[in-house]
Amino acid sequence: MSTTSQVRVRFAPSPTGQLHVGNARTALFNWLFARQADGVMVLRIEDTDLERSEARFEVQLRDDLKWMGLDWDEGPDIGGPYAPYRQSDRLAVYREHAERLVSEGKAYLCFCSQEELERDREQKLKNQLPPIYSGKCRGLGPAEAERRRTSGEAAAIRLRIPEHPIRFHDIVHGAVEFSSEVVSDPIILRSSGIPVYNYVVVVDDALMEITHVIRGDDHLSNTPKQVALYEALGWPVPQFAHLSTILGSDRERLSKRHGATSIANFREMGVLPEALMNYLALLGWAPSGGTREIFTPDELKKEFSLERVTPSPAVFDMEKLYWLNRHYIKESSPERIEKLAEPFFVSCGFLPENSDEQTRAWFAKVVALLAPSVDKLEQLPQRAGLIFRYDAAATVNSPDNAEVLAAPKTAEVLAAFAQQAESDPGPMTPERFKAIMNEVKSKTGAKGKDLFHPVRIALTGSHSGPEFDKLIPILEEGSQLDLPHHVMSVRERLAAFRQVKRT
Ligand code: GLU
Question: Is any atom of ligand 1 closer than 6 Å to the C-beta of 219?
Answer without folding.
Answer: yes
